[in-house]
Design goal:
transmembrane helix, 10 helices, seven-stranded antiparallel sheet, alpha+beta
C-alpha cells in the first residue's frame, strides 16, 4: 500500500481529528505504518505539516474556494520556510498527501508531487549541515509552554509563523489570545460551512522571521489578518445582505472604484479639523474613529474572535448578519518593524492565498497621519455573493493594523462611507 493510501486509511480508522494534534498524529504514524514504509525524515515532515499548521492553513484556503494546486503550493512553501528547509517540493508533497488522506486533494496531485528526495531535513541550527535523516528524532522546534492552549491544539509556533529551524534562535512572543479547541467547519451558529474557520493556534500571533543577520525583524502578520477578515465576510456573505438597499441608507455619495490598471497613487490626507462626537466615537486599542451616524454600532462583543486578532468591528444596524457591510480592525505585534513596506508583500500574498483573488493596489495614503498601503479585492464566494474588500495596512507604535471594509460589489456608497470614516481616524500612542 502506498503511503498516501495508508494515510487515508488512518483517517478512516481513527478519524480526521487525529490530523489536528501533532503528538497524537506522530504516535499514530509510528504505530500504524509498516516498518520501512516511511523513513524517520518522512514521518518528521508529515508531523511538521500538522505541528506547524500547514495542513490546517491549506484546508482553510480550500474552504474559502482557493484552487487545490494553489493551496498546496502556498502551504508547502510556508511549511518549507517554517522548517528552515530548501525542500519546497517535499513540503508540498507532504501537504498534498495529507490533504488526500482527508479527501481534499485528488490522488493525481498527491502522486504527481512525490519528489525524489522527499525526506530531506532542514539545516541544523549550528549551520554544520543537514546530517542524516535518522540522526534526529524531529525537525520541529521544541514545544513551547502550552498552559494557554486548548487540549486538542498544537503548540503555539504554528504556520504561518516565519520561525527559524532552531527553536531557541528567537524568543517566542506570547500568543495574543488562546483559541478555543479545534472545531470542524460550520462552527458558527448562524452560517454553515465553508466559511467557519477552524480555531487553530496556527492563526494566532506568530513570531517574526529573521530577514538578515542585522536587519529588522518582520512579523508574519498577514495570515493572521486575513483569516479573521474572511471569517467576518463569511457571516455577511451567507446572509446575502438583501435586507438593505445599497442606494438607500448611507449618506456617502456615489463614487467610482479605481480601475485595477491604474498605477498606485499617493492620496493627500484631508487637512480639515476632525470633529468628534463622543456618542459616535468607537474606541479601539490604540485608536479611535467616528461612526458616520447613530445607526452604526460596535458589534465586537457579538463577533466570534476565532483568531485572537480582532480588535473592533462595526456596522450599520444591530447585527453583522443583516448589515450592508462592516468595518473590521485587526491588530498584532509589529515585532519592531516601523516601515509598513516591509510587511505589505506578505499581507498581499496571504490575501491571494486565502481568497483566490489578486489584490489590486489602490495606492498609498495616510490614516490618522500614519503611512498606509491599500489594496482592494473582488471575488465571488461559494454562495455566489460578490464580495468587495478594501483594506489598508498601517503600523502605529508597536502594532500592525489591518483596516478592512467588506461589502457587496457595486455598493460605491459604502466604500465612500469607509473613506469618510478613515478621515476621522486618531491614533493613540
Amino acid at each position: 500500500m502506498e503511503l498516501h493510501e495508508s494515510l487515508a486509511q488512518l483517517a478512516r480508522d481513527h478519524g480526521e481529528s487525529l490530523f489536528t494534534e501533532a503528538d497524537a498524529f506522530r504516535g499514530a504514524l509510528d504505530d500504524y505504518l509498516d516498518e520501512g514504509s516511511a523513513s524517520t525524515g518522512t514521518i518528521n515532515l508529515l508531523t511538521d505539516a500538522v505541528r506547524l499548521g500547514a495542513l490546517q492553513g491549506m484546508l482553510a484556503m480550500l474552504d474559502t474556494g482557493a484552487g487545490v494546486e494553489d493551496a498546496v503550493e502556498t502551504a508547502g512553501r510556508r511549511l518549507a520556510r517554517d522548517r528552515g528547509s530548501a525542500d519546497v517540493a517535499g513540503s508540498q508533497w507532504a501537504c498534498a498527501v495529507l490533504g488526500f488522506a482527508l479527501g481534499k486533494v485528488p490522488v493525481s496531485l498527491a502522486t504527481r508531487l512525490r519528489p525524489d528526495a522527499f525526506t530531506a531535513e532542514p539545516p541544523s541550527s549550528t549551520g554544520t549541515g543537514t546530517g542524516s535523516t535518522s540522526a534526529r528524532p524531529s525537525v520541529s522546534p521544541p514545544t513551547a509552554p502550552t498552559s494557554a492552549v486548548g487540549p486538542t491544539q498544537s503548540p503555539p509556533q504554528q504556520w504561518p509563523a516565519a520561525s527559524a529551524p532552531a527553536a531557541s534562535q528567537y524568543p517566542q512572543p506570547p500568543a495574543s489570545a488562546p483559541a478555543p479547541p479545534s472545531q470542524s467547519a460550520g462552527g458558527y451558529s448562524a452560517p454553515a460551512a465553508p466559511y467557519a474557520f477552524t480555531a487553530s493556534p496556527g492563526y494566532g500571533t506568530p513570531p517574526p522571521a529573521k530577514k538578515s543577520s542585522n536587519g529588522p525583524i518582520i512579523g508574519a502578520i498577514a495570515a493572521v489578518l486575513v483569516i479573521g477578515i474572511l471569517a467576518i465576510i463569511g457571516i455577511i456573505a451567507l446572509s446575502g445582505g438583501d435586507d438593505d438597499d445599497p442606494s438607500a441608507k448611507d449618506t456617502g455619495g456615489e463614487t467610482t472604484s479605481p480601475p485595477t490598471t491604474t498605477p498606485p497613487t499617493t492620496t493627500t490626507p484631508p487637512t480639515t479639523p476632525i470633529t468628534t462626537d463622543s456618542a459616535l466615537t468607537l474606541q479601539g486599542t490604540g485608536y479611535t474613529y467616528q461612526f458616520p451616524n447613530d445607526d452604526w454600532k460596535d458589534l465586537t462583543a457579538d463577533t466570534p474572535d476565532t483568531t485572537g486578532t480582532i480588535d473592533t468591528i462595526a456596522a450599520p444596524g444591530g447585527a453583522i448578519e443583516t448589515a450592508r457591510g462592516n468595518i473590521l480592525v485587526e491588530s498584532s505585534s509589529a515585532y519592531g518593524v516601523t516601515d509598513v513596506d516591509e510587511v505589505v508583500d506578505d499581507w498581499k500574498r496571504v490575501l491571494t492565498g486565502s481568497t483566490g483573488a489578486t489584490p489590486s493596489d489602490i495606492g498609498s495614503t495616510t490614516i490618522g497621519g500614519k503611512e498606509a498601503r491599500g489594496v482592494e479585492l473582488k471575488w465571488t464566494n461559494a454562495n455566489d455573493f460578490k464580495v468587495h474588500q478594501v483594506a489598508y495596512l498601517v503600523i502605529s507604535g508597536d502594532e500592525q493594523y489591518s483596516i478592512t471594509a467588506s461589502f457587496r460589489q457595486g455598493d460605491s456608497g459604502f466604500r465612500q462611507t469607509f473613506e469618510d470614516v478613515l478621515a476621522t481616524w486618531v491614533w493613540e500612542e
